[in-house]
Amino acid sequence: MTIWPNFKLTNTDALTAAFTEYTAKVLKKDKQPSILEQLAKFKALVQTKIMDRVKNKDKELTR
Fold first, then answer.
1. What angle do CA 50, 55, 61 make, to 5 degrees?
2. CB proximity list for 7: less than 8 A, separation 6 or greater
3. DSSP line for 34-56
4. pLDDT digit string (tens) for 9-27?
5. Which of 15, 25, 45, 56 is 20 to 30 A off residue 6, Cα-Cα?
């Protein structure tokens, strides 16, 4: 025996609204970059800034 939800004709508007809200939420979530990806980008950015600062410091010391 398969159990299917019994939606009446009056519930279709509520069902449609809930489905559109859910799909909008899922699509919005897909567009956002993951936090781990952002963290990796910022780590690389900070690392390059530190290396640039060290290189510039070495140049100033040799002058």
1. 125
2. 15
3. PHHHHHHHHHHHHHHHHHHHHHH
4. 567 788 888 889 999 988 8
5. 25
